[in-house]
Amino acid sequence: MAQHVILGAGPAGINAIETLRQLDAGAGITLVCDEPAYARMVLPYRLAGSIAEGTLFTADDAWLEAQRVDARLGRRATRIDPGAHRVTLEGGESLAYDRLLVATGSRAARPPLEGLEGPAVLDMWTLADARGLEASGARDVTVVGAGFIGLIVLDALLTRGCRLRYVEIAPHVLPRMLDAPAADLVEAHLRARGVEIHTGVAVERAERREKGMRLELADGTRLDSDVVLMATGIHPNLELLTAAGLETDEGVLVDGFLRTSAADVWAAGDVAQGPDLLGGGRAVHAIQPTAIDHGRVAAANMAGMEVSYGGSLAMNVLHTQGLHSCSFGLWQGDERESTIVSSPADGIYRKYVWQDDRIVGGVMVGPGGTVSGAHDAGMLKGLVQTGVALGPWKDWLRANPLELRRAYLASGATSALLEHTLLTGRASVGGGHRFPPVPPRRERGEHHGVFTSGLRE
Predict the structure, then answer these.
(1) Alpha helices in 92-175, H assignment, sequence order
(2) The overall pTM is greater than 0.85
(3) Sign of CA dihedral 276, 285, 54, 69
(4) What is the C-alpha separation between 132 and 136, in angstroms, rounded?
(5) Which of 37, 87, 209, 233 could form a cystine bridge with 9, CB 3.0-4.6 A?
(6) What 3-state DSSP class applies to 179?
(7) DSSP-derived 3-state class of residue 426
(8) In what helix (H) or strand (E) does residue 215 lie, and over which residues does it extend?
(9) Inter-residue contact 303 to 266 (CB < 8 Å)
(10) Do the Cβ atoms of 265 and 80 come closer than 8 Å?
């Protein structure tokens, strides 16, 4: 009976457990993590008070017992010995493994600035951070970093009645997600709702006050607040891997099967630098969809299958005060051909980045009904992910950039997406937090052909 050890109870680790149990009913599975298994991306909803804390958890004791997992939660691994096939835990306990999955995730990064410490300075990355902010009772909050991590908590903080300001060293908010015109729409939308934004400026000094913190910016601005939230990026937790002699770069290097440079050791999630779907190399994509895919593929290979991973797709989707924004793939455009439509008065911006007649990246900003409600964001992701050729529909879409649906359906992207579905035919068993597939409830309507025929025929 194979003995599998999994380090990390995030989405990569939990999906790996599911897959291992599906493929090898008799395998031994041991889970080690210094935190409970919970959904990090749901923390803002807990801060806003819209969900109870219990709903955060993705694998409770009952689920772990049902999956026959020997769980060591609240424990930290301190050493990996690939030669001996052993992992050492705090306190000296040693675990033998036949195959090891390292899914140790990442941690919040802070700039090396003196004074950024103490109870009035919090990261916004863990359940403990969220609990700390809630316990602080803060009503005046400065967030350092207006990237994705900083802005996912915006709605929650405003719901809590906080006065809110952001400081971003880049020229505009969301610099790794949106181009400048798209970011301008987001900034205008937030300023109109009372959010104070300082862009293109760094924090030069941090000073603890009797109550709270004072930040001094490079332009001389002083900001006093009850709490400073640090959202200046994350670092993969690589220490165990580098100490064990595995090959690392920005993350631990893995191949197309998610294997590391050590025999019988795989890696998944934020810690893994693996195949990039569009970039042609290896990249760290610290996003939940990549972690889930990594976990399933790594586990399938640990169970003895040969499942290759086509590569992760850079993507971000964000909702801020009713304005939805997203970007996929090679959205920056560089020197590629782009189709752009912009209506600042309506808060709408779209950019499709082309390589010949294929969309390789894109950006959308707008009210929910124009981005998420009409499923346009999902269709844009599907076109980028599959790389289907649009043929004559390219010219049609360039002339009608807000009419994505017809081009999407006619392209055959829906069928092509099936080829990108990992472990096809093996449904998720779920951890109590996923809905099973729901079959169509009605036949195709008489007008279905209008959307799936035309220029391509």
Answers:
(1) 127-136, 148-151, 154-159
(2) yes
(3) positive
(4) 6
(5) 37
(6) coil
(7) coil
(8) strand 213-217
(9) no
(10) yes
Task: Name the nearest CA neighbour of 43 among 134, 120, 116.
Answer: 134
Give, to the nearest 10 degrees, the angle between helix 404-411 and helix 413-420: 60
- Rounded to whole angstroms, the Cα distance separating 181 from 186 reads 9
- Give residue 422's pLDDT: 58
Dist CA 177 CA 343 (whole Å)? 19
The candidate with the shortest Cα–Cα distance to 231, out of 129, 142, 124, 152, is 124
For tokens 């915006």, name the residue. Answer: 154
Pairing mode of beta strands 77-81, 69-73: unpaired
Interval 379-395 mean pLDDT:
96
Compute the distance between CA of residue 330 and CA of residue 443 in angstroms, rounded to an integer.
37
Q: What's the first-to-final CA gap in the chain, in angstroms?
A: 55
Find all residues with CB under 8 Å of 267, minimum gap 6, and list them: 101, 102, 103, 241, 251, 252, 254, 258, 260, 274, 294, 298
- Residue 87 pLDDT more than 50? yes
| CA 412 – CA 313 distance, rounded (Å) | 19
Q: What amino acid is encoded at 252 in this protein?
A: V
Residue 15 in tokens: 């999906």
Residue whose C-alpha is closest to residue 254's, from 279, 229, 280, 283: 283
Choose among 31, 103, 95, 105: nearest CA to 67: 31
Q: Is 298's pLDDT higher than 60? A: yes
CA distance 181 to 224: 30
Strand, helix or coil for residue 56: helix
* Pick from 164, 163, 159, 166: nearest CA to 47: 159
Please work out, in degrees rounded to the nearest 5, the angle formed at the alpha carbon of residue 365 by the alpha carbons of 362 and 366: 140
User: For residues 339 and 437, which has the higher predicted lDDT (pLDDT)?
Assistant: 339
Assigned token pair, 275: 């195949």
Buried b (16+ CB within 10 A) or exposed e, 345-377: eebbbbbbbbeeebbbbbbbbbeeebbbeeebb
Two structure tokens written together for 332: 């920056």
- Residue 69 host element (H or E): strand 69-73
As a whole number, mean pLDDT of residues 58-75 equals 95
Q: Are the C-beta atoms of residues 230 and 203 closer than 8 Å to each other?
A: no
CA atoms of 389 and 409, how far apart (whole Å): 12
The half-sphere exposure of 298 on its side-chain side, counting CA atoms within 13 A, is 36
Average pLDDT in the chain: 91
Question: CA-CA distance, 285 to 41, in Å (whole number)?
Answer: 15
